[in-house]
Amino acid sequence: MVPHLVTALNGPLLDLEKKILAATPAIERWFRMEWQEHTPPFYCSVDLRNSGFKLAPVDTNLFPGGFNNLSAEMLPLAVQAAMAAIEKYCPDAKNLLLLPELHTKNTFYLQNVARLMQIFRQTGLHVRLGNLTEGVTESQTLELPDGTSVTLEPLQRSANGRRLGLENFDPCTILLNNDLSSGIPSILENLNEQNLLPPLHAGWAVRRKSNHFAAYDEVIKKFAKLVDVDPWMLNPFFTKCHQINLQEHIGEEALASSVSSLLSKMRKKYKEYGIKEKPFVIVKADAGTCGMGIMSITDANQIKDLNLKQRNKMSVGKDGLPIHDVIIQEGVPTFEHINESVAEPVVYMIDRYVVGGFYRVHADRGINENLNAPGAHYVPLAFAQQHALPDLLAKPGTTAPNRFYMYGVVARLALLAASLEMEKTDPNPEIY
Amino acid sequence: MVPHLVTALNGPLLDLEKKILAATPAIERWFRMEWQEHTPPFYCSVDLRNSGFKLAPVDTNLFPGGFNNLSAEMLPLAVQAAMAAIEKYCPDAKNLLLLPELHTKNTFYLQNVARLMQIFRQTGLHVRLGNLTEGVTESQTLELPDGTSVTLEPLQRSANGRRLGLENFDPCTILLNNDLSSGIPSILENLNEQNLLPPLHAGWAVRRKSNHFAAYDEVIKKFAKLVDVDPWMLNPFFTKCHQINLQEHIGEEALASSVSSLLSKMRKKYKEYGIKEKPFVIVKADAGTCGMGIMSITDANQIKDLNLKQRNKMSVGKDGLPIHDVIIQEGVPTFEHINESVAEPVVYMIDRYVVGGFYRVHADRGINENLNAPGAHYVPLAFAQQHALPDLLAKPGTTAPNRFYMYGVVARLALLAASLEMEKTDPNPEIY
């Protein structure tokens, strides 16, 4: 199924699509060279926003759920990419320990876990699931809607304390599908003999969005030069604001002033390109995920006028953790619709390869709102369509494969940024 | 489209499918480890025969045409595999010189060339075509049915004589899609600064089927142990017979005696498994391709009774080259049909990855005949179908993805054999 592309591209983004398609060999070679220098994250999903006048990543997830939402036709692509990834970290790997989130009642999430197990089995691994809940000693079997089940098993450190595994299961690689929002469990510390992927500093206990988007700035500077476009076409302005506490009115003025200056930078760009939309910014927790602690603002004065409910919402993230540091990011409206609903593309990658994607669709949200919220549903991106390779003969802006190729390029720019971010924030950098 | 699987599997092959599916993690890990030791051919297609009681490769092509017959949905898999391959040989590659066959009037073949160019462009390469015709000095543009065209350009050696390229085009890698049946052109000799892929000794000027199937024997010995099956289930008996000349009745008795002894080995196996079919052997040129110089024999006496036309047919291969060396291979009837026509699967690989396949279908041929003949047509294998990963819950022998997975495994066994074959026949082996 190809979602109907309601906005046939025109204006600036049409030009971007043309430039990206024409520069394909140069772009792919550039990525190939970058991946010689930088190690891609093991896996990653990127939320994109396509406003018709710009196309930008707004969230880069290093512990992607939602593999169950990818079209089944594209699974062989995921298996192939996972084979390449595994070979890199542990070519003789036999066992993989997967550590999922503890959303044990969320059958959508459990289907994601089952899908990941299926993918890694096909790469030649025995996959078992570990339970990150502290102190748990019993296995727990969870039923899936298709009648199958998955089993979470208690974790064990080896006798010498150096390795992590399960009963009768010594993995070469430990794959986290848990974003560590609530901190780093002590059982994951000091595992020097096994590959722990992604590394602990990729988890939200340590990671900061502002580091990611700073790295993305760097990536885009180089890429925009390569394809000869204004970097702003691919990059939302952002700034960070630390040590605020909206419940206690701390740092409110600094936040309002940052919002105000970002909005005025946006107005200049909107004027330059003749864009009639009303600029807005997104304020969100610098650490954290799951669509929590996010607000959309069109005027700096809105900050001081926030009501108590809004202040509370902006003060607590996933797992009830307090929010004191935020980033303010240029809002990119999404002009893509599926039927009557607002949609945004999400692109999935394993190692350096795009392996699929879907549209996140929300019937009750506007074009300038966060769609990662209860009520969202998912429509697989049509990477699997006939002529899934770019069609150079097609009229620009009219074919799905050409647009999806562009999405894949921008998602990989965010992937590369995540790679730089991980290098820069590594607490124990390797010296070469 | 899934071709109707007329023979639901039963008997020995059903058991093989079960064993292969159950052993998937072990099989994939085994391949992973083998590819640590051996370099896969750059690309490869394998003709398989599924008789219901055995599944075996009957031809391993190291210069595959027919990429245009793969389903378009699966092209991203080919691109991803090609990325991995290119990265291995020349990570900073910018230019690829592709040297096709000189079938300039065969628009099917030209579509294969165009498809290969499209795949490699997506991996970040500028691709141009060189003309292997000796003495040609002009470019030649050839029209394709879809209105596009491809251009064959004259080859040039660099001023110092060390490199091969085109005007203003210095490639890092030269990819042969020409099987060199008529010998190694001198312009391809002594290219030590560029990657020439596949290597010259993969071409039919040097290559011998008997070396390939000897290597396949070795591979199957190990694999059959891993999955606990009779190696014969996956491996056709073969023997070779050199220095014959059927036109001049030279070596006829030796050939008849080899045929006779192979048929009696087969009869024993047929008896062991209760197979009611009439055994037959295929006699074919030890060097050569394109379905030429092949005959199907059920009785050794047929050799001395060959008529003049048959003798002539068996004496001349592709490009009119004389045939003096043959291999005699156990015939594997194909029990797969599409509509009323006999069909055999062909699996395509790039580097170590299965990237697609199709059924070769021939309306006018029998189950014990060669289908690679004028009148054949091609139906893409449904690797792209829903649940393209093996379905472990399905009833054995009933689902296409499970069968295609088994095909992919056997095709990769032939790929591995080709890798061993290339190592053993390398005229300049690298010493490690």
UniProtKB/TrEMBL annotation, chains A, B:
Keywords, alphabetical: Ligase
EC number: 6.3.2.2
Leading EC class: ligase
InterPro entries from the UniProt entry: GshA (IPR011718), GshA_N (IPR042520)
Pfam families xrefs: GshA
Source organism, top-level taxon: Bacteria
GO molecular function: glutamate-cysteine ligase activity
Record carries keyword Ligase: yes
NCBIfam families: gshA_ferroox
Protein name, UniProt field: Glutamate--cysteine ligase
Gene source species: Glaciimonas soli
